[in-house]
Amino acid sequence: MDALQAFILGMLQGLTEYLPVSSSGHLTIGQYFFGVTEDNLIFTIVVHVATVFSTLFILREEVAWLISGCWTSIKNGFQWNEEMKYMSLILLSMIPVGIVGLFFKDFVEEIFGSGLFIVGCMLLLTSALLAFSYYAKPRVKEQLSYKDAFIIGLSQACAVMPGLSRSGTTIATGLLLGNKKEKLAQFSFLMVIPPILGEALLDCIKVAKGGFESVAGGISPMALIIGFVSAFVFGCLACKWMLDIVKKGKLIYFSIYCAIVGVLVICMDKL
Questions:
Q1: DSSP three-state, residue 84
Q2: What are the pLDDT digits (tens) for 202-258?
Q3: Which residue did the predictor score with more confidence, 209 or 44?
Q4: HSE-up of 263 (CA within 13 Å, CB side)?
Q5: Residues 6+ apart with CB under 8 A from 110
Q6: Radius of gyration in angstroms for the set of CA atoms belonging to the chain, rounded to a whole number
Q7: Please, which residues have CB within 8 angstroms of residue 24's CB and are 6 or more apart in sequence?
Q8: Quick one: pLDDT at residue 216?
Q9: What is the rounded distance in angstroms from the CA atom of residue 8 to the CA atom of residue 30?
Q10: How far does the chain reach from its first CA to its final CA, in angstroms?
Q11: Which of 51, 86, 99, 103 could form a disulfide with 235 if both were Cys (CB 3.0 to 4.6 A apart)?
Q12: pLDDT averaged over the chain?
């Protein structure tokens, strides 16, 4: 992988991690076009961590509010407050994807190597979910409940499939449950931080066991740096953009995009 490929793949990761079009699916498509067939575990870790940093940067005020409130609660003997409740919602939403990551990681990795057909099918499913959430008009709830947080967490666990957008699936699920658009995108972006860091930790353990050279896939340190910076910068832009898009309820355009790309990818796989 050269520097230009690292830049473009980092850009794809940064943009598609937040936009409801599937980062994993677009990375798979990008690697297909570039002929990058080796398992670049180090690069995957780098660009995913970069998107976590972009989330922390864009939502720095919300993260600071959360940390400050939880610390205050701990100092006061775990006194229950709004911040602790919000954190508990995030922790609850992590349970399903945590189970998938710990017990079904090998199965998921096999699916990632199964070609473009599954990516195309999952993009079509993403399109359907976004369309349903756009046209459905459930009664709007004032607060995110524990039940809703767990259901959104289940949708996040399903979104480990390549081509099924994590942000699109979780936001669409939350909208179908009747949660407010203004708060839902923020919750969706914050709830993914612990799972991404947990996955990166597991991958780092794999790197430590296998050795850097065996999993680096021939990527130079400069390419890794370029990929990180690209994913971070475009991640910041996409995160900010997506927050505005959800508030305005314009997800239908991404539904159309996913449908078109999904059909094209399936056709490419059959050629």
A1: helix
A2: 767 766 666 555 555 567 778 888 989 999 999 999 888 888 888 787 788 889 998
A3: 44
A4: 7
A5: none
A6: 18
A7: 112, 162, 163
A8: 53
A9: 8
A10: 25
A11: 51
A12: 82
DSSP secondary structure string for all residues of 131-189: HHHHH--PPPPSS--HHHHHHHHHHHHHTTSTTS-HHHHHHHHHHHTT--HHHHHHHHH
Domain extents for the chain?
A: 3-270
Helices (H), the chain: 3-18, 23-34, 41-58, 60-75, 82-103, 105-112, 116-135, 146-158, 166-176, 181-191, 193-210, 212-216, 221-248, 252-270
Please, are residues 190 and 90 in contact by the beta-carbon 8 Å criterion? yes
- Residue carrying the six token digits 């508030």: 247
* Short-list 179, 173, 164, 187, CA closest to 243: 187
The dihedral over CA atoms of 56, 58, 61, 67, expressed in degrees to the nearest 10, equals: -10
Burial class (CB in 10 A: 0-12, 13-18, 19+), 163: buried
Q: What is the pLDDT of residues 60-75, one digit of tens each?
A: 998 999 999 989 888 8
Give the C-alpha separation, 229 to 184, whole Å.
27
Which pair of structure tokens corresponds to residue 104?
A: 């079904």
- Separation between Cα atoms, residue 146 and residue 5, nearest integer Å: 42
